[in-house]
Amino acid sequence: MKVPRHWRETPQRYRMEAGKCSKCGSIQFPGRVICPDCGATEMETVKLSGKGELASYTVIRVAPTGFTDLAPYAVGVVQLEEGMRVMGQVVDCDPDNLKIGDRLTTQFRRINEEGKTGMILYGFKFVPDLGL
């Protein structure tokens, strides 16, 4: 990932910020310039709770280059409390014990590293919501 793209995506990756339409109230993640529901251009920034339910998932057993040390790992689609669906890695649990409807929450984690002297990329991953 190039540095400019990384900086553009910082609000979504680091703070789970979304765009909320001032006209119709629709929330989009990541935020948009124009509301896809009503076409308005007045958007405000909102922070998402990061909590939701597992809507779908898959377990990756043969991982691509750069992720082989993580296999097997789960990637899931989570229906957030705010209404949108977000995809991300599900960690801190046995991927074979996951089930649709599990409560998850986001945590800020290291995603990848570009070589030994490259940029370290951070973002959110989903973990079981233990109600703590």
Protein architecture, described:
This protein is mainly β and 132 residues long. The protein folds into two domains: 1-48; 49-132, OB fold (Dihydrolipoamide Acetyltransferase, E2P) (Beta Barrel), CATH 2.40.50. 9% of the residues lie in helices and 42% in strands. It contains two helices and eight strands, in the order ααββββββββ. The chain has helices at 3-8, 10-15; strands spanning 17-21, 27-28, 43-47, 51-60, 73-80, 85-90, 103-113, 120-128. The strands form two sheets. The protein has a five-stranded antiparallel beta sheet with strand order 6-5-4-7-8. Strands 2-1-3 form a three-stranded antiparallel beta sheet. The protein is globular, with a radius of gyration of 16 Å. The mean pLDDT is 87.
Concise structural overview:
The chain is mainly beta and 132 residues long.
What descriptors fit this protein?
mainly beta, 8 strands, single chain, 3-stranded antiparallel sheet, 5-stranded antiparallel sheet, 132 residues
Main sheet summary? 5 strands, antiparallel
What is the number of E strands?
Answer: 8
The count of domains is 2
Portion of residues in beta strands equals 35-45%
User: What is the CATH T-level topology of the largest domain?
Assistant: OB fold (Dihydrolipoamide Acetyltransferase, E2P)
Overall pLDDT score: 87
Helix content: under 10%
Number of helices: 2
CATH class of the largest domain: Mainly Beta
Order of helices and strands: HHEEEEEEEE
CATH architecture of the largest domain: Beta Barrel
Envelope shape: globular
